[in-house]
Amino acid sequence: MSDLFHAEQSKRTRGSITVTMKNGTKLAKRLEKLKDGGETAIKYTISDFASRAPGWVTKGIRQHYGVDTAAIKDAGPKTKRGGTSKNVSGIVVGGISLKFEGKTLTPTHFNMNYSQPHPKGLQIKRVIVPGKKIAEKAKNKNAEYGMVRTPVPYQVKATIIKGHRATMKGGTYIAPSNSKNAGAPNIPFQRTPGRKFPVEAIHTLSVPQMIGNEEHPSKASETINNMISEKLEKRFNNHIKRTMK
After folding, report:
1. Cα angle 21-23-27, degrees, rounded to a multiple of 5
2. What is the pLDDT of residue 110?
3. What number of other Cβ atoms are within 10 A of residue 165's Cβ?
4. Assuming Cys at both sites, which of 23, 80, 102, 137 could form a disulfide with 207, CB separation 3.0 to 4.6 Å?
5. How far, in Å, CA of 186 to CA of 108, rounded?
6. pLDDT at 59
7. What is the mean pLDDT of residues 88-96?
8. Neighbour count for residue 113 (Cβ, 10 Å)
9. Pair 10, 87 in one domain
């Protein structure tokens, strides 16, 4: 099983991404000349950030991970009206922070599928299996072996990293989740090796882990930072031009 899959209980994770606009010092000098106009430009840019940045983050994540947009939206920042100010965001010389929170996800959010809908499916080709009971079932009571169809390998796959289809280890099976939500999808489980119990659902990355941070960068970290920084600066410059008219 890929290192991205873990048979364990879901873990809640938190994370944030701080974006500093390019040429912050240069923009700060422009703001000093604009006075009230600069305040207006900041206000409009913060409003743009609150409404548009989650979409930019989603786009950046999906460039590198196979996760569905519903999971990203569920973990996304919950913006409250009036909850953001220029003093908190430090939009010019500091940065802007987006805070995400979400549990480690099951592979169902990563285009998961499985080759055999139940573990009792049988191979078409028969193989020789020793054993008296096997022979009796094969209606050849004098034989010490039987020709039987063995179970089909029960493979479950998901695309965690974009462009890479990962296979979960043998023994994985699909069963209904404990979710009380009607229509909740079946999810993959694993038993403890050599034992019937305990049984744990398989989980993988959370949205905050896919976003990453300075201490634990992810594949999407640089893409997200560059995307937001460039788009935010563009919006900021547009608002400055508007206030100068």
Report:
1. 90
2. 96
3. 14
4. 102
5. 8
6. 94
7. 40
8. 12
9. yes
- Domains: count for the chain: 2
Q: Which residue has better confidence, 83 or 153? A: 153
Q: Would you say residue 201 lies in a domain?
A: no
In a domain, 159, yes or no: no
Lowest average pLDDT, out of 87-91, 93-97, 145-149, goes to 87-91
pLDDT at 46 over 80: no
Which of the listed ranges 77-81, 186-190, 210-214 does the model predict with the highest average pLDDT?
186-190
Provide the domain limits for residue 95. 6-104+206-244
- Is 141 found in the same domain as 93? no
**Would you say residue 126 lies in a domain?**
yes
Q: What is this structure's pTM?
A: 0.71
Identify the residue with better confidence: 35 or 4.
Answer: 4
Q: What one-character-per-residue DSSP string does the chain give? A: --TT-EES---EEEEEEEE--TTHHHHHHHHHHHTHHHHHHHHHHHHHHHHHHHHHHHHHHHTTB---HHHHHHHS----TT---HHHHTTTTS-EEEEEEEEPPPGGGS--EES-SSTT-EEEEEEEEE-HHHHHHTT-TT-SEEEEEEEPP--EEE-SBTT--EEPPTT-EEE--S--STTPPPEEEEEPTTSS--EEEEE---HHHHH--SSS--TTHHHHHHHHHHHHHHHHHHHHHHHH-
Given 153, 176, 194, the domain boundary residue is 153
